[in-house]
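Working notes for the structural subgroup meeting. M.R. asked for a predicted model of this chain before we commit to crystallization trials. I am recording the input and output together here so anyone reviewing the notebook later can reproduce the run.

Input as submitted:
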Amino acid sequence: MSQRDQYFHLTLGPVQGFVAQARRTRDFWAGSFLLSWLSSVAMLSVRAQGGEIEFPIPDDAFLKAMQGQAGEGEAPHQGSVPNRFKALGARVGEDFDPEAVVRAMQQAWLALCKTVWDQDLAPHLLDEQLATTRAIWFRQLSRFWEISWCLTDEPQRSDLLDRRKNWRCDMAPDEPGVKCMMMSGWQELSGLERPDRKRLEAFWTSLRDALKPRQGWTDLREGECLSALGFVKRRFVRHFEGWTTTLDNDVTLKGWALNPNVPSVPYLAAAPWYRRVLEKAAGDAAVSEALGAFFDGAEQLVGFPECRTPLAGVYAAARRLGQRPEYSGLDGVVFHASQLEQGGRRFDAPDAAAQTLKALQRLRHTAGMAEASSFYAVVIMDGDRLGSQMSDSDKQTAISTGLNAFTRGVPAIVARHDGFLVYAGGDDVLALASVDHAIDMASEIRAHYSACFAEQNRSLNDAQRITTSLSAGIQFAHMRLPLTFVLGDAHSLLDDVAKERTGRDALAVRVWKPGGRHLEWSQPWEYLLADGENRLTVLVTRFLRREQESAFTHRFFYKAMALLDRLPANLAERPTDSAKELMRTLLEAELRHSGIALKRGEQSRREVAELIEPLLTLLAEQRRTLDAEQSAHIAPTGCYSPDTLRLVRFLATESRLERGEATGAETPADKEVTA
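Returned structure, recorded in token form:
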């Protein structure tokens, strides 16, 4: 038997085809968790053959939990294992069997799926329907995963998986019948060959009613039809605790308790508003009384499906008020008048919805609150140019150590910003947040990433130094937009705008309103965070503060955007000192005529400059480039971006919580700004 070292590479997919297809934030989280769990099965299977995982450094807490050996503290809830890794087989040669790893992954997956089948479907389907649904179930689940591997003697060969993935050995056949509402293109489980609403409703209503006693009544909404893949994503969490199986390689896997209550999109959007209401109620008896009436109506209407919310700020505010913890987890739809106004179209009890709407309006009036925001944020982040350095054996250990430290630190950052972490593993992060926290959260994660690799570089010579950065994309999306679309577009924002167009180590932002894309904006991180502060956050804060003194922003932003549209092309494309001075003069004039309250003389000039100077800085688009020595340089692209104005206006509007911060009545012209 050969004792030489070999290098085993493995990748698991499809990532976007499984994770990003989601109807709820919970589906999003479930796909990421299951992908991470399957990658961890592969790692345990490599170790069972004497292999040592080189990259990434395994998450021991996750692997121990999988074997029923969880230590003190909370068991893992988020995925933290990349779907791609490189493993060193210490004793491979003829003994190491890559296909055994693949078989173990498939066996673990099917064992978990079988538990869902045995508990949720088999007991509730009659013979003919049972046979039809079983055929769909095993057809879809047994052939979904694409697992590619390579084995080589060369430690420097990091491109083999990319080449291997070009060999598609098996293409799934087209699915017949009515399609799943979550997983596009996959047949739903009733097996109907063509749409028939009555028969479809009969199948899914019966199944939904059968699952209610198992505390899963919110898992299947009225009218929702799922494939086997979608059903497992939605329901596996109900059976994961207590689940166990032993694989052919003698590895025993065990599940653990997982929180099925992932914050919904409406809840994330309204979280800052709700936290502020709870804080006001703690010191104002009238607000407390109005809040109690709202609780009563909301509880009867929707209950507490998010009662185990991980958003610490809301939970802490509810506890300080003396309320039961479940009041921090009201269904997010009750915070939005637009949802309650749908009455019978949205709720089974339209009269209760009307009463809850009245209680919400009274609560807002008593507390002096504006409407809760209808927007939330998807934050996606990815390391820059790190993969190309993994083939350098002198850097591999430092890269793995840096990434391990980065991954461990991300959950605390997301929690501090009242976000929900979907995934953090390797150099990838995916999180959800409210509008007012998203940019600062991404900035702190980027600083943490830089610090982790700066720590590694301290012990490396110049030839070994790791050169990397972290790019980010933030999607601010209206809660009515399909989550699958928002997630899919986030990757385009990160790859095409933050990385390619802006030059990496950058932040890119899009805002999606119900009518379509409202804006797209990007800047290099180094330019945005100059002088130790976030220029965008500072500018938004200044406009919010001045807006409380006098309503002016609607008129100013509308006029300023119209101004940029009227500028000659050669001025906008070639910003020079004279062009910048002209822009400053024009914007100052618009600001002074917008209705802003200003003092006289020199103090007036300072007040105007406090808003106009940082706005001018962000209006000028920048791009990051690397020279021959790989040193970064940031230079203007030659364009002013009107979307900067739209972004500042959007953030200022959606961040306000109280009526005193409102921007006043809108004119028809003003509404063009926000349409």
